[in-house]
Write a structure and sequence with these properties.
Elements lengths: L3 H11 L1 H13 L8 H11 L5 E3 L8 E6 L2 E11 L26 H17 L5 E9 L8 H7 L8 E4 L16 E4 L1 E10 L3 E2 L9 H12 L1 H6 L6 E9 L6 E2 L2 E10 L2 H22 L2 E8 L4 E3 L1 H7 L1
Parallel strand pairs: 3-4, 3-5
Antiparallel strand pairs: 1-2, 2-4, 6-13, 7-11, 7-12, 8-10, 9-11
Helix pairs in contact: 2-4, 6-8
Length: 315
Amino acid sequence: MMTTLDKLFKALEDREHMMIDIRRHLHEHPELSFEEEETGAYIKDFYKGKDVTMTHPVEGQHALIVDIEGGKPGKTIALRADFDALPIQEETDLPFKSKNDGVMHACGHDVHTANLMALADALIEIKDELPGTIRIVHQHAEEVVPGGAKSVMASKALDNVDEIYGIHVAPNAPPGVVAYTKGYAFAGSSVFTLKLQGRGGHAATPHRANDALIAGTKFVDRAQTIVSRHIDPKASGVVTIGSFHAPGGFNAIQNEVTIKGTIRYLKDELGQSMYEQLQQIVKGIEDSYGVEAKLDFQFGYPVLYNHPDETESVV
């Protein structure tokens, strides 16, 4: 006699080609964060006519909540996947390569969504044997800060959820391997933009200018000391500068610089400390180089913590 789990695995095996087709469709039609109109409609159409309850938790956005009611009493378990893409030009020869210029599913969200849709379809097939409620969470806008998860949570769509699970593809792991960590698993991340305003001038008369470019390079240099000199070596943090923009000619001293970067950390309190260190560095740059500085900082996703008991129940 087949158990409920056996039936689920069988249902998933039957949906292997469905999963592949969904993934390839999504890969061909990627959309950026907060612009996922066609993707959201495609996902919603998939559930039409099925024995589920659908809601849009965030007005004006494309996130979708799908409830599968089991035939027995039990917990509410949420399963979550994201579906936005990245502003990257795909340079492959795949027959299902992106058809949207400058946009690509380069972070696996097409796979995440295909997995979740096929799993949901399999769960619907055996729903009468399931305890409680399975809440399918199709989340928009994961790739930006602040992302779509915060608005989904603010909508109270997760208020009565007992447990929530998600996965992320890992191309560096061997096929068929599931990697997991109990406790702190993925770093929290925040982004910042620093604008430095100096006084420009001719390259031959630097003494008459306040060089924003030099001030910017000093900021980049000192930002790297946050990790090397201000964080406990047993802790984990990263400061990365991703963009340094100083437009101008070869013979002019720049009056304006824009720097963009991110910090990542495995404890939320460490992220707060790193932010305060950045503020101190910026203040020192202002005082030392006579420039005006504006630091725009956005706290993003908190650290992902996998509760040990729930993690053990999965593996």
